[in-house]
Predict the structure.
Amino acid sequence: MSYLNGLISLCDSFGCRYKKDESLKEHTTFKIGGKCSIAVFVNGEESLSATVAYCRENKVKFAVLGNGSNIIAEDKFFDGVVIIIGNDFSKINYIKDGVIECEAGLMLTRLCVTARNEGYTGLEFAYGIPGTVGGALYMNAGAYGGQMSDVVVSCDYLDTDGEIRTISSECMDLSYRHSAFMGSGRIILRVRVKLNKGSVNEIEQKMEELITKRRDKQPLNFPSAGSTFKRPKDNVFAAALIEQCGLKGFSVGDAQVSEKHSGFVINKGNATYEDLMSLVEHVREKVKTDTGYELELEPEILK
Ligand SMILES: Cc1cc2nc3c(=O)[nH]c(=O)nc-3n(C[C@H](O)[C@H](O)[C@H](O)COP(=O)(O)OP(=O)(O)OC[C@H]3O[C@@H](n4cnc5c(N)ncnc54)[C@H](O)[C@@H]3O)c2cc1C
């Protein structure tokens, strides 16, 4: 790992934090994962661009993480750099005429709170989704009838050739839990959402109503990545199919189909990647055999 010294000097020159031999358990909401060579907490466009360029030049494997709430990390050592776009890259740049521009590492819930405080409606659906704005756009995250594609107007991203480009939402190919960023190597830097003026009280009420629903229905006291499977079809829910197959509460090691919400696989303590993936495979096979539906994993696997 001869590249580490150079990378550390680079981090120092930008004043950005890093942690060597960092466990990915600390950076995924599933609390599963082995160590990586180094985690770099980029603190702006410059440190991000430089870190990516450094990895490319030195042929070092790298992966990008936001809040790790839709990621499954393997238990084995990740021999490379995990670039974390989080708190250190999370400013709100401006709020003007209903448009809010923020950096990709801002937590979505913080953006919702800011919008509410400013009296802007449109983001209530996202309150309680535990991801960053960049991760939410990448996934086109959504809930309770809303999704990122309803509010995003454009974003700036770091392209694979090292250039920074702007793209409007129409060109992002946003659909259910899908965007053009997936598998593209493009890294989201800044996102602009457009909201409408509303009543602070009504926005507040809606947000409270939705967070209460989450607390009532979801196993939030256990580590998870939220919904484990995508909806196989409009109005067909993975949770219902899983229950229909008698798999509620089914477990492999410490990985379990939640008793509270069958759409969530939870980590009851020390679940391993193997436990989780064996469980996922069993669920997929049984659902396919019994119902004909093919369930697709919603979280991405960190490779
Ligand atoms: C309890 C719980 C409830 C949840 N509820 C919902 C829900 O209601 N609706 C929903 O849609 N999701 C939900 N999720 C899943 C998850 O929170 C969202 O998908 C979220 O948008 C992921 O954001 P993240 O920052 O955590 O991304 P990560 O998990 O860190 O990353 C996910 C993917 O995005 C990529 N990525 C992250 N940031 C960037 C960036 N800046 N540029 C390019 N690529 C990037 C990563 O490389 C990775 O491939 C839930 C998860 C949990 C744990």
Q: What stands out?
A: The chain has a mean pLDDT of 97. The radius of gyration is 20 Å. Residues 29, 64-71, 85, 104, 129-132, 134-136, 138-139, 141-143, 181, 187-188, 218, 220, 224-226, 300 surround flavin-adenine dinucleotide (CB under 6 Å). The helical segments are 3-14, 45-57, 108-117, 133-139, 200-217, 238-244, 273-291.
